[in-house]
Every structure is written in C-alpha cells, then in structure tokens.
Amino acid sequence: MLKGIPGSSGYGIGKVLIYHTFDPVVTERHCDAGHLFEQKESLNAALDSAKKELASIQKNLPPDKSAIFGAHIEILEDEAMLEDIKAMMEHDRSSAEWAVYSVYNTYIDVLKKGANEFMRQRADDLKDIRNRIIRNLRNEPELSLSALKEPVIVAAYDLLPSHAAVIDSSKVLGFLTETGGATSHAAILARGFGIPAVLGIPSLTKLLRDGQTAIADGFKGLVITDPDEEVLEQYRALKADYARDLEIDRKFLNMPSETKDGVKIPVSLNIGSSELPENAEFCDGIGLFRSEFLYMEKDALPDEQTQYAAYASVLRKMGGRPVILRTLDIGGDKTLPYIDLEKEQNPFLGNRAIRLCLSREALFRTQLRAALRALPHGNLNIMFPMIGSVEDFRKAKAVADSVWEELRGEGFPLERRVPLGIMVEIPAAALAADFLAKEADFASIGTNDLCQYAFAADRMNPAVAEYAHPLSAPMLRLIRQTVQAFEAQNKPVSVCGEMAGDKNAVHLLVGSGIRKLSVSASALGTVKRYLRACTISDCKTLFEKSVNCATEKEILELVSLFRQENGALQ
Ligand code: PEP
Ligand code: MG
Asked: What is the pTM of this model?
C-alpha cells in the first residue's frame, strides 16, 4: 500500500498506466548498402503511422485544441527536412533513427537560438515530432493521455494543464502523482474532471508497474496495489455507495442555493477554459476564471483577439450571470514554456501573478484589453491575484484604468466601469482588508494560497502537507477579518479556494459571514445540498466554537458532530 495525499474524492479501480514522456537516447548508427532500402521503408512506415496518430488525436479534439496537432502534421511532412533526412541516409548510410534525430536536432538548435519566444516554442514542437517518429521507428505504442485505448489509473510524476488539455477523461479511472498536494493544480484539475486522485506519493513511478491492478482511494489518499478479491469487493461496494451519494448530490443541482432558513448563498463555478462544465447551467456565475490555464494549454502566447474571443464566449454563455475573470496567475507551480521566467529560489514567494504582470506590463495590458473589449458580452468582473497591499492594488488598478482610457480613445463602446476586485490569498491582505475594502470593489478569498502562506507550507510539497491546516483558528480568523472588512464597506466577498467545495468547511464559511462561494464543477450539487441542510444561526454557532479551538482535530470533531445532528449529511 502506498500513502499519498487525498487530491480528489472517489475510488478508482483498474490497471495502472505509468505515464512518462518518451525521450529516447539515440546513438549514431550506420547501415550497409544492403539494408538501406529496408531503413527507408521503415522510415516511410514510421512517418505514415505518426501522421495517422496525429490525425486521430486531431479528430477527437475541439478545434481550439486540435490546431496544434494539424501544425505537427505539416511539420512532419515538411519537404526540406525530409530531403535532409533522406540525403543523410543515402550519403552517410545513417540509420533512419540517427538521420531523423540529427536533422531534427539541427533545426531544433537553430530555433532554440531564435530571437523570440515564438521560435523557441517551435523548437519544443520539433522535439515532440522527432520523438513521435522515433517511437514509431521502434514500434513502441503511443503513451498519450489523449490516446488511451482502455480505462486506466494514470500514474505520473505530475499532472500538468498541458496534459489535461488533451486528456480523454472518460478513460482515466484515477490519477496518481509524485508531486503536489490537496490544493496543487493537479488536484484542482482532477476535481474539475471528477476523477479520483492521490497525490504526493514518493517514488510512485518507480514503485508501480504498468498493467498492475490498483485501487486509488481519493478519500484517504491511499493506493492499494495488487488487491485480493476480498479488498476488491470491499472497494467496489464503497465505490457504489459513493456513486449513490453523488447521485443524491446531483438531485440538488437545480435547486436554489440557499440555507434551510432561506438565505441565498450563490454558488458559482471555478473554470480554467472557455468550455464550460456540463452542469454550468445550474451555477450562479463564474466565481473564478483561472485565465492562466488558457495560456498554459497553448504553445504560444495567445494574442489579444484569441483572448477576447475566449472571454466573450464565457460571458455570452453565462448570459448575464456574473463572471469573475482573474488576471494571469503565472509563477509558483504554473509556468509558461514560451515565457522566460527567471529561476527563483522560492517561486511561490517570487515574481508571481500580479507581480509578474506588473513587471511585464505589455503582457498585462494585452490581457486587460482583451477582457475589457469583451465587456459588452456580459457581466464581467476583473480580479487581481496575489494582492498583498493597498499599493499592489493601486498599481494594478492604474494599469486597468489606463487600458480603459486607451480603448475608449480607440472608440470601443465601454459604457460602464468594470468592477475591479482582489484575491485575498496573502495573509497581509487579510490583515489589511479594512484598507483594501475601501478601494477594491470586491474580494474573493483564495484559501489555497492563504493556507500555504499562513502556515509557510508549500502547497506543492507533500513532505510538509501535514503542516498546513485549512480548518484551523488562524485560517478562520483571517477569513472572518476579511469578511467583516468588506461587509463594513458593503462590498461582496466570496471564497473561491478549495475550502469552498469542502464538505467539512462549507458550514464554517457560512458561519464566518461568507455569503458567496465558488467551487469546482464536481462540488456544485454537494455544496447546494450541504447549504440547504442548515440554518445561518446553526452555522454561526459552529463557527464561534471552532474559531476558538486550539487544533484542527477539535474543529473536525465539532464539524462531524454538527453533520450528524443535521442527519442528511454524512
Ligand atoms: C487560491 O489560492 O485559493 C486560489 C483560488 O487560486 P489558485 O488555486 O489558482 O492559486
Ligand atoms: Mg491562489
């Protein structure tokens, strides 16, 4: 049995697939004249099957995600490169593998030295295609999350948004990773798909075998390998119970989000792309549009028009319901391959999110132009991540105001101002919430980062996961302080961190005064069900007791008792 961190609820039972990117070692080899024909035939067959693989991936993806694979086919068929490969084989008697490797590397080296990020990014594309051809030359099957042949539990070092962009979620029974924790982006992605996940399992990819049967227990953060029939039976029963529980939660989807005593608590969704989750019709808005995911799934910086189209599409789909677009939050565990980010000792304490945007104003302005241009399509709100002080907010607001003036000067019909809000995810912002509430139009509490910064426990590092306590007096006090400050200014404050979708936290948040939540799609029904089971005054009492508890264990005991008293909730 392997122990990790619960990343996404549920049970996955099936065969393991170790996912690693194919990065071959190729040595210089030459063949005699007699084998040249054979080598050429192998090359043609490999090119042919590589093209078929790409075409099949392309066919199964929506247009915005498939374009890159179309470009890969064009590169694969590039005549200049094919000529060079064939010339090397004929003149030097290079093996097909060595010729492909050498020619592609020559082009890769040129592109890597390219003057701009776009060219450098093309080098990664060439590397991808080179490896695809070589894999086909070796007749090795494709290991891509977009081309899974049967349902599997995927075990990987990490789960990146670029993997998620092409994932066929119907074939993934569970995710297991070596890095990450409960609030890492791998966990958030897994929850978005509703796939059970266990993260932060040391040496995972060395300890598991391809094809091995395993059980991923996303509740306890366990992986049981080679289970016997008795354990399998036990878990099949648990899985069936959980499916029934989810079925009950689903019945709450179309009910109003309100407490037992009728107080409205709008529940919005957290999203990462312009494609909305299936149950989006039942939410009260988009409480967090993680715009950086839009950037991360591309292979080059999306231009103003591309971003505008994505933002306008979400606004139109939400038809007047509020959409909170969070400006780019890159840095920490999120990088962009086509942007040179300086190596930092402590990336989570470094040039991340709003800081990065302020230091690269052109990038920030492009995003703000795209967002503001989309304003006429719906109910847009813009939120800045990682605000630590009033100064940070003023700087960000000044850029937004200047972009606003610029667009008006160009004749764009911007009639009303867009509400500008902040994420409260740095403890200093929670402690300065009274100042910030006077200037920002709204706030949303990012409990994932707030917890990592409050407890100085890296959210990506499984070794320190036990030091972060979301359900704790310090967190509840930071939240209460923020709520009271924004309430005093009559301005909205919500929670969009993972706590908002946590069964153990929902009632505490309501008890703290929070009246808006934003959650992963998979938690929408559950949260409505939990809200509808209790009154505001019950939640307040629970909060008042919990905020004075010395340990997380005591709070969990109170919550568990509270849930038992409100019988419908397990
Ligand atoms: C948070 O920090 O709680 C949050 C919602 O933002 P992210 O998880 O994207 O950092
Ligand atoms: Mg955050």
From this structure: 0.79
Q: Please, which residues bridge with residue 334 across strands?
A: 331
Beta bridge mates, 256: none
**Which one, of 269, 278, 274, 280, lies nearest residue 297 by Cα?**
274
Q: Is 494 in the pocket of ligand 1 (CB under 6 A)?
A: no
What is the C-alpha separation between 94 and 165, in angstroms, rounded?
Answer: 37
Handedness of CA 403, 405, 411, 413 (dihedral sign): positive
Asked whether 475 lines ligand 1 (CB < 6 A), one says: no
Q: How far is CA 222 from CA 8, 240, 463, in A?
A: 12, 18, 16
Q: Is 331 in the pocket of ligand 1 (CB under 6 A)?
A: no
- Residue 426 C-alpha to ligand 2 middle, in angstroms? 9
Which residues are identified as catalytic?
A: 185, 496
Q: What do you get for the CA distance between the two ends of the chain, in Å? A: 26
Q: What is the DSSP string of 424-438?
A: E-SHHHHHTHHHHHH
Ligand 1 in reach of 447 Cβ (< 6 A) = yes
Cβ-proximal residues to 482 (8 Å cutoff; 6+ apart), any chain = 424, 429, 430, 433, 443, 445, 493
**Of the candidates 333, 347, 328, 337, the residue with the CA atom closest to the CA atom of residue 290:** 328
Closest ligand to residue 444's CA: 1
> Which residue's C-alpha comes closest to atom 1 of ligand 1?
446
CB 249 within 8 A of CB 529: yes
Q: Which domains does the chain have, with CATH numbers?
A: 2-21+144-233 (3.50.30.10), 33-137 (1.10.274.10), 257-566 (3.20.20.60)
Q: Within 10 A of 247 (CB to CB), how many other CB atoms are there?
A: 10
Q: How far is ligand 2, taken at its centre, from the CA of residue 263, in Å?
A: 28
**Type of residue at 240:** A
**pLDDT digit string (tens) for the chain, length 570 residues:** 899 999 999 999 999 999 887 778 899 999 888 889 999 999 999 999 999 988 887 777 666 566 777 888 999 999 999 999 999 999 999 999 999 999 999 998 888 777 665 666 677 778 889 999 999 999 987 777 777 889 999 999 887 665 666 677 889 999 999 988 887 777 888 888 889 999 999 999 889 999 999 999 999 999 999 999 999 999 999 999 999 999 999 999 999 999 999 999 999 999 988 889 889 999 999 999 999 988 876 667 889 999 999 999 999 999 999 999 999 999 887 877 777 788 888 999 999 999 999 999 999 999 999 999 999 999 999 999 999 999 999 999 999 999 999 999 999 988 889 999 999 999 999 999 999 999 999 999 999 999 999 999 998 888 898 999 999 999 999 999 999 999 999 999 999 999 999 999 999 999 999 999 999 998 999 999 999 999 999 999 999 999 999 999 999 999 999 998 886 566
Residue nearest atom 3 of ligand 1, based on CA coordinates: 446
State the Cα angle at 258 between 255 and 261, rounded to 5°: 125
Residue 473 Cα to ligand 1 midpoint, Å, equals 20
User: Measured from the CA of 497, which atom of ligand 1 is nearest?
Assistant: 3
**Strands, sheet with 2-3, edge to edge from the N-terminal-most edge strand:** 2-3, 222-225, 213-217, 11-19, 152-156, 172-177, 197-199, 5-8
Contact 511, 251 (CB under 8 A): no
Residue 220 CA to ligand 1 centre (angstroms): 23
Is residue 22 within 8 A of residue 159, CB to CB? The reply is: no
